[in-house]
Amino acid sequence: MTVIPRKRPTAEEIVAKLRQVDVLVSQGKSVGDAVRSIGTTEVSYYRWRKEFGGLRTDQIKRLKELEAENARLRKAVSDLTLDKMILAEAARGNF
Question: Which residues of 20-54 are buried (b: 16+ CB within 10 A; e: fewer)?
Fold first, then answer.
């Protein structure tokens, strides 16, 4: 029997699922039933709600762009710091 790997939902898909749960709850379903109807667990639902709670799709895209830029800048700073430390060590003659 072949096991198909599960794919993680994108941030946009998560926001859509959170909205579906909100609609189902407003229609009178319990949170547990609404969460099961979107095909996830309550633990995932509450984790997603904590992370993406009040965000819209365009805000999610902007958040991902900022996180990518932040990671790129952190790498640049760490590379420059390492270069500076190497040059300082070489200037002291301790190589």
Answer: ebeebeeeeeeeeebbeebebeeeebeebeeebee
pLDDT in tens, 34-54: 999 999 999 999 999 998 877
* C-alpha–C-alpha distance, residues 13 and 84, integer Å: 43
Q: CB under 8 Å to 75, separation ≥6 — which residues?
A: none
Tokens 């900022």, residue located: 66
Helix segments in the chain, DSSP class H: 11-26, 31-37, 42-52, 57-92
- Check: CB of residue 52 under 8 Å from CB of residue 18: yes
Confirm if 14 and 55 have CB atoms less than 8 A apart. Answer: no
Residues of the chain predicted below pLDDT 50 = none
**CA-based R_g, the chain, Å:** 22
